[in-house]
From TrEMBL:
InterPro entries membership: PH-like_dom_sf (IPR011993), PH_domain (IPR001849)
Superkingdom in the source lineage: Eukaryota
SUPFAM superfamilies registered for this protein in UniProt: PH domain-like
Domain PH intervals: 81-205
Pfam name, any one: PH_12
Name this polypeptide is given: PH domain-containing protein
Amino acid sequence: MRATTEDFAKVFSVVQEQIARATDPPPATLDKFKSKLATLTYSEIMNLWQQEQSTREEWESQAKPIVELRERVTPEILDLIRQQRLQFLHDGTLFTKYSAKGHRIKDKFWYCRLSANQKVLHYGDCEENAVPSIEDLPHKLAVVEIRSLVTGRECPYMKDTRKARSTASLAFSLILDSEQDPLNFVAPNEKVFDYWTDGINALLGKTMTSKETKNDLEILLSMEVKLRLLNTEGVDIPENPPPIPKELTNFDFCYDFK
């Protein structure tokens, strides 16, 4: 395996760092220098750099300009997450069917998906592993008819405390304005539960509060801030903005354009 020019540059920078760290503070003897140098292996230097980078990023994230940048970017990221959640609802999900009393119905499934205009939920029974189109789903629920979203033990069919905790934690219901029974769901896993509850909250104009949203927001926000700060690499970010110069006492400027 041949080394490239980039490999040589990386090795030189590591060797330079090894020597700098081994001589700070200056060792009393050559043997002590060699001994300290032996502990500063390539992997050790890389670990030290990574730790220092993490510490620097953590400190910079608390700087006022970075905090203000995160606050400015946050609405854009939340809107991106909202669009992804609504697209997830549009693609639809296969749910296991449960009775009105919260009992699982063996080998019975139903599918639910959001219309392209985001105004109607289409749903209906289907076979396992099926992905029916909207046209194949006979039942409809207008989003405007949804009064609220409830989850867990607050769901009408999960009031019984004897229900398994794992099942209750994945349950959510759409409470309707009309006299209709609520539309009840049990998500196949926590991620689908978070995506659907986020999507319903987005449709209702409410805040998305799931764990997935918090994780996605932190990851995407961190990436976006790093991208916007690429041109400032190597520049120390001040804790506070520089002071504004005092106002001039005389604005009678004279320009000679001849």
